[in-house]
Design brief:
Layout lengths: L1 H14 L16 E5 L4 H11 L4 E6 L2 H13 L3 E6 L7 H12 L4 E4 L7 H6 L1 H29 L2 E6 L12 H21 L4 E8 L1 E2 L14 E2 L1 H11 L6 E4 L3 H10 L2 H4 L5
Parallel strand pairs: 1-2, 1-4, 2-3, 4-5, 5-6, 6-9, 7-8
Bound molecules: NADP nicotinamide-adenine-dinucleotide phosphate.
């Protein structure tokens, strides 16, 4: 920018009039956003970034008390918020999504952030627990994705962002049930992105690495590979403008996961992860 100003001043002096270069970036337009799973730590961080542009944000989560706390925080940062308490794994996405859109008339971004990691050891013997992991992370999320897609198609605009996981890139013994659900969600969102190609709308799957949130509270933290919710939130907010259907966050996970996906079975089966 300094170089631009120096160039403008020099050219101005040469041609005998003053050229001005604005230092102020254009003010970002307020957005209309629906967040499913608004009490998630990652979703809250993304919402805080959207809030500063006076966005209108519909916050959906099942815990009313925490939902209201999130709403108060976002309002204090400049957002206009609407809260809806519901269990997102319950059926009825199609009708409920229409109700959510009515609160803000049109929607620029739909963020599907809720998820359930569950306990792989328990789920291997308790099939109801396994079904819950699959239903929360895939079946119900898929229904919300499809409902959101129909709305975006009717507007010919807007972005659907779903949070997937590295676990969906290759089945590993420690989390293949959660991984299968997130992998399925990844295929669904990629297919939606394909369906939306050439329209004004788009779909993006964001795949975070290891993020410090309540979901990973009981986990051994992996030093340098850990990321903060703020780092991931910045990538989520940026992804809404992206034409890429898959975003790894932080970016280096794309390259790590290419390696993991291509590890020969003879090596892979010996790894304890
Ligand atoms: N943290 C990581 O390392 C990581 C890595 C990759 C992907 N992800 C994904 O990122 C997303 C956000 O997770 P997070 O890390 O921010 O964890 P988090 O803070 O624990 O958030 C998970 C959220 O999902 C909500 N939720 C679960 N089931 C729900 C349901 N049936 N209805 C409504 N809300 C429901 C939870 O609400 P309650 O508080 O009411 O339970 C909670 O707010 C998830 O999809 C997760 O799978 C996380």
């Amino acid at each position: 920018m300094l170089q631009t100003h120096a160039l403008a001043a020099t050219v101005g002096a040469l041609v005998g009039f003053e050229m001005s270069v604005s230092r102020m970036p254009a003010k970002p337009r307020e957005k209309r956003i629906i967040i499913l799973g608004a009490t998630s730590a990652i979703a809250q961080a993304a919402a805080r970034l959207w809030a500063v542009n006076a966005s209108h944000i519909v916050l959906v989560a099942r815990n009313s008390e925490r939902l209201n706390a999130v709403s108060d925080d976002l309002r204090s940062r400049g957002a206009q918020t609407y809260t809806v308490a519901m269990d997102l794994a319950e059926p009825g996405a199609e009708q409920e999504f229409g109700r959510l859109v009515k609160l803000i008339e049109t929607v620029d971004v739909v963020l599907i952030a809720y998820g359930l990691l569950g306990d792989q050891n328990v789920a291997e013997s308790d099939l109801a627990a396994a079904q819950r992991i699959l239903a929360y992370n895939f079946t119900s999320a898929a229904a919300w994705c499809l409902a959101a897609t129909n709305q975006l198609i009717s507007q010919d605009a807007g972005a659907l962002i779903a949070i997937g996981s590295l676990a969906g890139d290759r089945g590993r013994k420690k989390n293949y049930i959660y991984g299968a659900a997130k992998g399925g969600l990844g295929v669904l969102v990629e297919g939606i992105a394909h369906r939306l190609a050439g329209t004004g709308a788009r779909a993006i799957l964001v795949k975070p690495g290891f993020v410090d949130t309540p979901m990973t509270a009981g986990f051994h933290k992996r030093g340098l590979l850990r990321s903060s919710v703020d780092q991931v939130a910045r990538d989520i907010v940026r992804s809404a403008e992206s034409r890429h259907p898959v975003v790894y966050t932080p970016w280096f996970w794309r390259w790590i996961m290419i390696g993991v996906r291509h590890l020969p079975w003879a090596v892979f089966k010996r790894l304890d992860f």
